């Protein structure tokens, strides 16, 4: 009888342990799995950086010196070609470069104060039988700009020079024999001009930009070498005889 009671008590104790201890063990296992998950998800401890992982695994990504030199050469090569991309277009009326001229240009300098333009123009048939084409290489300098508000800016002074040529046999490089030697002293195929002017710029709001980021209207007063020589040697000439007025628009692309 005592033996039976002992066996019965052992079974009761075993059943008790099964009911109360096993669930706690299961929860402990779950807590362990949760802890591991948190570690993997970097909740409890931060992830190792890629550099640390590569260092521990013996992976070295340092670029060899000869490859660095190659990359620098490629970068300089690409930068040189990118510098040739025009930053603006320009259209100009009159100015001793034809009735109407159009071309491309480049802005550069710390404040974009320098401009170089290459323009093609035309001269209609006035007294000649055929119209003529012109080409102009122009250098501009804009010392400063004044913000006026509401996307408008004033450039109170622009100056520079440009070289213009006319594609026609009527203009010569060397002085023809029909003139006395040294009568002109310079070629009339290439004219050298100087100019002064002013500009006003409108910065197009970003939501309205399609082709240009800004539009600049300008005027210039110019004269060429031939007109200036004539003005100094002929006192009867007035400024209207040797000065030229021109107007234009500049469309800033970049």
Oligomer: single chain
Number of helices: 5
Low-pLDDT stretches? 19-31, 41-45
CATH architecture type of the largest domain: Beta Barrel
Structural class: alpha+beta
Give your account of this protein's structure.
This protein is an alpha+beta fold and 254 residues long. It folds into two domains: 27-62, no CATH class; 86-252, Porin, CATH 2.40.160. Mean pLDDT is 79; it is low at 19-31 and 41-45. The chain is globular. It is built from five helices and nine strands; from the N terminus they run αααββββββββααβ. The longest helix is centred in the first third of the chain and has 39 residues, at 2-40.
Note the topology:
Elements: H1 2-40, H2 50-56, H3 65-82, E1 88-93, E2 100-108, E3 114-123, E4 132-141, E5 146-149, E6 152-167, E7 190-203, E8 214-224, H4 225-233, H5 239-242, E9 244-252
Antiparallel strand pairs: 1-2, 1-9, 2-3, 3-4, 4-6, 5-6, 6-7, 7-8, 8-9
Describe this structure in a few short sentences.
The chain has 254 residues and is α+β, with helices and mostly antiparallel strands. It has helices at residues 2-40, 50-56, 65-82, 225-233, 239-242; strands at 88-93, 100-108, 114-123, 132-141, 146-149, 152-167, 190-203, 214-224, 244-252. The N and C termini lie far apart (105 Å).
